[in-house]
Amino acid sequence: MSAADLSLLKSHADDSFTRKRLVAFGIPALILAYVVYIFFAFDIAGLAKRANWDNAITLASDSWSHKVHVTRANSTGEFSYAIEGERKGTYPNGTRPDWVSGTDVITVDLGGDHIVRFLPDQRTAVDVPGYGQITAQAEGRQITTNLGDDIPDWINASDRRVSITTPEGRITITGSKTEVFNYFAGWELFWFTFDSPYHGASLGQILFGAQIDPDRGNITGAVADWWKNPMWRHNEIAWAIGETILMAFLGTFGAAMLALPLAFMAARKFTPIMVIRAATRRLFDFLRGVDALIWTVVLARAFGPGPLTGALAILLTDTGTFGKTFSEALENVDDKQIDGVRSTGAKPLQRYRFGVIPQVAPVLLSQILYFLESNTRSATIIGAITGGGIGLMLTQAIQTQKDWEEVAYYITLIVIMVMLMDWFSGWLRSKLIGRKA
Amino acid sequence: MGPPICHPKGPIMTGITAATPPDLSVIRASYLAQVQRRRLYGSLTLLIFVMLMIAGFNIADDRNAGGFWAGLGQIGDYPADVLSEAWAKRADLPVLLWKFVPALIETINIAAVSTLLGAVAGLIFSLLATRGLAPWPRLIPVFRRILDILRAIPEIVIALVLIFVLGGGPVPAMIAIALHTAGALGKMFSEVAENADLKPVEGLSSTGASWAQCMWLGVLPQVAPNYVSYGLLRFEINIRASAILGFVGAGGLGYELRNAMSWGPGRFDEAAAIFVLLFSTIVLFDQVSSRYRNRLTEGQMT
Questions:
Q1: Does B6 map to a domain?
Q2: pTM for the complete prediction?
Q3: Among the four residues A72, A143, A279, B122, which has the most C-beta atoms within 10 Å?
Q4: Parallel, antiparallel, or unpaired: how do β-strands A123-128 and A161-166 relate?
């Protein structure tokens, strides 16, 4: 090799190194610049100010705990005890939680030596260890307390409303009522509400014990009461999940059935006429481009909210997607098998059925089954827009900003649902077309 | 002396030639029976499938506010209303289109950033979850389950929860889509990385390269075309996702669409402008990314 060759080679190598270096530093620099731009465009710096950390704390603590309300109506002096303050969670007449005692003076033991006493004449006394006793009296709409001017930050007091937040519970006093919230871990009344005879019974008692409800067998009665639990509404949720899966099922398979014949029209091998091919392909592009969001909005006007609208929106979008991939698969089929079937005197439809479909079926099926899983997620989102399925229940529960334990329940169920669909479609695929080599 | 392995063949060969030729009619009958059984199973499966479809359609139809057959006739009404109003005010359309360009940019930005973040996270997770590449092979199942869970949570769940904490705007949508993207891309990346050639990694580690250096210089150059191709596909999907999340309050074009929709007639021209922008954006990015993806995967084949 001569010296001239070497220097040429060297200059080539140098050029290539310079180019590589430019790319190696240029692309990260571009990405960095873009991230900086996003930092300002999305106002990330102001995020901490906009964020509501109280909401985050409520969400984090309420999703796995519940609170029991002890309420005194100041006008009548009557007490009520209710889980989450809901009518469906009210303790039946004459019963109350075991941490409440007394008859004339009702004493609430919040735990950790935090004690609330409901005194006569709408007076309330709160013992907080390390601080002392706080007393408050409601007269009409006016609240008078012994707090003085130096109020710690866990107490929020005005002459209309006093609110005390302790690690053991919360107390709110207004002119009309005094409320004590006592917090406990767990999802209360998840199995049975108070009106069910099975409330408080253990699993062993229900399965093997004496008959609890004279009218029904223990197991059937318990299952029915759990299923129709008015607070957790298990039956409605099961229906909603069924609706979501139904949307995905109808949408995916409906789209596949529509897309298959159309894909033949879009494949060069089966449709020699260019105009038909081009028209079908543009139809696919249009269906895909409009996207499930716009289809949902448009279809909801015609069909009203509900699962059918969601299913049709998925169907239309996926017809476009399937049409495109199916026609690509059809372009790649082997002619030899079709010729072989033709040589037996098969008509066009028979040629498609026995010469083409067996070749493309594995590709088509794995595509369809993959979409079945991904459409379960889409159906959750579309349900939130069009008003159907578990997506709607989740949105409503989040928007009421109250029942975070229900939100946590729905989220758990949604994740399980999607994972099950993922598993199911994988199982079906391995049954139908065998495991991947 | 021949090798002993040949010896047993003799009796078998003679056994075959000595047997009487099998009765063809028996084979034919069993073949026909098999075909018939297969046909029976096939048509039973088809029957069950068709019944499921019909029953499912009827249930969905029952639980929908409006019926399918009644609605079918009205399907064109809303688009016709929107189009006629947009046509009547066609002079304003360019102004309206321009008005919604910032929202469009926000939608695209959400998709781009979340694809970027998700791809980086997915890349790291995929290497941690791939047999042969993972630095801690015992933790592979843990990382795989993390990816499964990230993939299984629909974007809307995270977005709605984050909207409650962080307030409306693009950031909740960005985080929600990025998390899902990390799960989805992580799985696909890991499938690609499984087929990567390990020789460069061995060569690098023999020079004393760290794990990160082995991955960066030994694995990434092999898988980069496929990774970029999957990333582009995900970007297409994320544009749609970001538009949909806007509809539940996460900013961008979807949010504007919901506002325009809630105004009803009189503001249909705004809805039309948003439809046009969204449609053309999705089609544009579909075309561009599919062209690039073809180039990336074709370049790999040659």
A1: no
A2: 0.83
A3: B122
A4: unpaired
Phi-psi region of B167 (alpha: psi -120 to 50; beta: other; left: phi over 0): left
In this prediction, the residues of chain A whose per-residue pLDDT falls under 70 are: 1, 435-437
H/E element, B262 = helix B253-263
Q: In terms of domains, do A284 and A407 share one? A: yes
Q: Give B 116-135 residues with CB within 8 A of chain A.
A: 116
Instruction: Determine contact: B177 vs chain A, CB below 8 A.
Output: no
Cβ distance B240 to A291 less than 8 Å, yes or no, reads yes
Domain end (from A150, A185, A220)? A185
Q: Please give the pLDDT value at position B95.
A: 87
Residues of B in contact with A384 (CB under 8 A): 156, 248
Could you tell me the two tokens for A259? 């897309």
Q: Which amino acid is at A93?
A: N
Question: Per residue in A13-45, pLDDT tens?
Answer: 999 989 888 888 888 899 999 999 988 888 888
- DSSP string covering A318-353: HHHHHHHHHHHHHHT--HHHHHHHHHTT--HHHHII
Nearest to A302 among B78, B166, B279 (CB): B78
Which A residues in the span 297-326 are in contact with B, Cβ-Cβ below 8 Å?
297-299, 301-309, 311
Contacts of A50 in chain B (CB under 8 A): 166-167, 169
On whether any CB of chain B is under 8 Å from the CB of A30, the answer is: no
Residues A167 and A271 in one domain: no
The last residue of one of the domains, among B71, B101, B136, is B71
Give the model confidence (pLDDT) of B122-149 as tens digits.
Answer: 999 999 998 888 888 899 999 999 998 8
Say if residues B254 and B236 touch (Cβ distance below 8 Å).
no
Res A60: pLDDT: 79
Judge whether B247 is closer than 8 Å to chain A, CB to CB.
Answer: yes
Q: Are residues A84 and A41 in the same domain?
A: no
Q: Is B272 on the interface with A (CB under 8 A)?
A: no
Answer whether B157 touches A (CB < 8 Å): yes
B63 and B105 assigned to the same domain: no
Residue of A315, A126, A92 lying closest to A195 (CA atoms) = A92
pLDDT for B174 equals 93
**Torsion sign over Cα B282, B288, B293, B294:** positive
Q: Do residue B261 and residue A415 have CB atoms under 8 angstroms apart?
A: no
Q: Which residues pair with A174 in a beta bridge?
A: A161
Span between the terminal Cα atoms of chain A, in Å: 49
Mutate one of A293, A365, A404 to test the B interface: name it (highest B CB count within 10 A). Answer: A293
At B183 the pLDDT is: 93
List the single residue in A42, A291, A380 with the smallest CB-CB distance to B282. Answer: A291
Asked if A40 has any chain B CB less than 8 Å from its own CB, the reply is no
